[in-house]
Amino acid sequence: MQSLADVGGWKVESFASASGFLARPAVAVPSCLVLDVELPDANGLDMQQRLADRAELPIIFFTGCCDVQTAVRAMKAGAAEFLSRPLVGEVLLCAMRHAIERSRSALARRAELEALRQLHASLTCRERDVMALIVCGRLNKQAGAELGISEITVKAHRGKMMRKMGARSLPDLVTMAAKLAA
Fold it and tell me: How far apart are CA 35 and CA 60, in angstroms?
């Protein structure tokens, strides 16, 4: 494993047990977890379930004991790959490259979402109200009627909100709102 990681230019950390890995603080760098189905203190599939909320940590199963049902279960639960021994090193290396790229993408999406949340948090309550109505397709006049304010006031809040959010257009703002709602 170490020699494959050297080829890929990656740092490898090994853990003697699932609990040893889980005790380690999560890192926010592109990474993947190469995991066996049979672990000294846990089942690899149970471990995968415990890590399900960590999209930034794709799991590659690399095991000597493989049955179709286990492989299907792992893949349905989101495994990046399910490989069985013996294996050509290039296959594992390719799976690791793919998983690390998947991790990089997940980390980028998380950072983008966090930035959007911070921008949204910077809006005043009224700007958030206007944003909610505008992204739902309300015209300025309709938004004003719903909020009990004038159309000119809606336009002023809308302009400030668009600048704060960094939205260049209404479709851009709608895309941002959809990401925030997801």
Answer: 6
Distance CA 27, CA 22 (A): 12
95 in Cβ contact with 81 (< 8 Å) = yes
Residue 7 pLDDT > 80, yes or no? no
Residue extents of the structural domains in the chain: 2-109, 122-181
- Give the architecture-level CATH label for domain 122-181: Orthogonal Bundle (1.10)
3-state SS of 90-134 is HHHHHHHHHHHHHHHHHHHHHHHHHHHHHHHHCCCHHHHHHHHHH
User: pLDDT tens for residues 15-39?
Assistant: 888 888 889 888 889 999 999 888 8
Give the class (CATH, top level) of 2-109: alpha beta
Residue 138 is encoded by which pair of tokens?
């309300």
Q: Are 80 and 32 in contact (CB under 8 A)?
A: yes
